[in-house]
Automatic annotation (TrEMBL):
It comes from Halomonas urumqiensis. It comes from the Bacteria. PANTHER family: O-SUCCINYLBENZOATE SYNTHASE, O-SUCCINYLBENZOATE SYNTHASE-RELATED. Gene3D superfamilies: Enolase-like C-terminal domain (3.20.20.120), Enolase-like, N-terminal domain (3.30.390.10). Residues 147-244 form the Mandelate racemase/muconate lactonizing enzyme C-terminal domain. This is Muconate cycloisomerase. Keywords: Aromatic hydrocarbons catabolism, Isomerase, Manganese, Metal-binding. PROSITE patterns: MR_MLE_1 (PS00908). GO terms for molecular function: chloromuconate cycloisomerase activity; manganese ion binding; muconate cycloisomerase activity; racemase and epimerase activity. Belongs to the mandelate racemase/muconate lactonizing enzyme family. The active site is at K168 (proton acceptor), E326 (proton donor). Pathway: Aromatic compound metabolism. GO terms for biological process: amino acid catabolic process; peptide metabolic process. Its cofactor is Mn(2+).
Length: 372
């Protein structure tokens, strides 16, 4: 008998962060994960996660909209359908619903987790096989205080946890931000690479001034300096400076990637399951980038362990990423809802090797942190 999808439950899970995480558009004191539990008629449960940053501060989906739109619109499209044909189920969601890429990503992840468990294969094997089993992971310094950030960076270096750092700037005046970045880079010297993420905070004129100063300070990568939809401006910046531009909010999926590449962008793309609607969509973007000679970077929306593991399975199938990954989401959270956390060591993280995502929920922790 064909295995079908029987039930899909969604849970809002609030976890405190280890310290305030200050971005240009919001300061996070907690993270809300939307956890999907998808049960199939063969008794297998698939897990998925949809997560964004700061409610509606980061993008058009909030944790509450992700849950509501799965419950109301997306789950009914899947329930009763055969479990194993993920291409058909993706097409069904795309045909009947627009946008909501984080919600779709959570569901696709749950489908892949279940299929992997069913076949006894890790998700990366379902995607053709892992080329890496240990991936580099950077850390974001975003305490809002220069000296605290420097102490935090040295701690991470000494623990051999991270040797690349991303600084979140754009909330303060340009000169203050540049001073903050330059002080951190000067303190770390050659021990670490330092990059910045503006999260769209500058206009193009400000960006020209700010990026020149950041380049002079030895910054290695400048992420999303100007608003997402200003593709022409981003391309001008990528041509103007030696320091490469990393497109994040500007590049959601393969279509954006193709447009940017065809219009002359050079630099790198931040890949995120949340932007591209799941593992297949994000790999389509990665393949466009590869064809265009654009560098890859494994990005996060600060997902917990389930979403982070899903991303790792996708990144593991790619050639080495020019800019590594930022899959540190679980390390920013005070606690976890899984029985065995991901293993972070030697400046990176291990790819889980058990079937599916390789992650098991801790039911007590899940109940404790779930809303309602
Ligand atoms: O890159 C972003 O825009 C989102 C995210 C990734 C790391 C972090 O601290 O925030
Ligand atoms: Mn970013």
């Amino acid at each position: 008998m064909t295995t079908v999808i029987e039930t899909i439950d969604t849970l809002l899970v609030d976890l405190p962060t280890i310290r305030p995480h200050k971005l240009s558009m919001t300061t996070m004191a907690r993270q809300t994960l939307v956890i999907v539990r998808m049960r199939h008629s063969d008794g297998i449960e698939g897990l998925g996660e949809g997560t964004t940053i700061g409610g509606l501060a980061y993008g058009p989906e909030s944790p509450e909209s992700i849950k509501r739109n799965i419950d109301t619109y997306l789950a009914p499209l899947l329930i009763g359908q055969p479990s194993g044909n993920i291409n058909t189920l993706r097409a069904r969601m795309a045909r009947h619903t627009r946008g909501n890429m984080i919600a779709k990503s959570a569901l696709e992840t749950a489908l892949l987790d279940a299929q992997g468990k069913r076949l006894g294969l890790p998700v990366s094997d379902l995607l053709g096989g892992a080329r890496h089993t240990h991936l580099p992971v950077l850390w974001t310094l975003a305490s809002g205080d220069t000296h605290k950030d420097i102490d935090e960076a040295f701690q991470r270096l000494d623990d051999r946890r991270h040797c690349d750092f991303k600084l979140k700037i754009g909330a303060n005046a340009v000169d203050d931000d540049v001073r903050h970045v330059a002080a951190i880079k000067a303190a770390l010297g050659d021990r670490a690479s330092v990059r910045v993420d503006l999260n769209q905070a500058w206009d193009e004129r400000t960006a020209v001034r700010g990026i020149q100063a950041l380049q002079d300070a030895g910054i290695e990568l400048v992420e999303q300096a100007i608003p997402a939809r200003e593709h022409a401006g981003l391309i001008r910046l990528s041509r103007r400076f030696n320091v490469p531009m990393l497109a994040d909010e500007s590049v959601q999926d393969a279509r954006d990637g193709l447009d940017l590449a065809c219009a002359g962008f050079s630099g790198a793309f931040a890949l995120k399951l949340a932007k591209s609607g799941g593992l297949y969509g994000v790999l389509e973007l990665a393949h466009v980038a590869q064809a265009a000679g654009i560098g890859l970077y494994g990005g996060t929306l600060l997902e917990g362990t389930i979403g982070t593991a899903a991303s790792l399975h996708a990144w593991a199938t790619l050639p080495e990423m020019a800019w590594g990954t930022e899959m540190f989401g679980p390390l920013l959270l005070e606690d976890d809802i899984v029985t065995a956390p991901l293993e972070y060591h030697e400046f990176g993280v291990d790819l889980p090797r058990l079937p599916g995502l390789g992650i098991t929920l801790d039911e007590d922790k899940l109940a404790h942190y779930s809303r309602g």
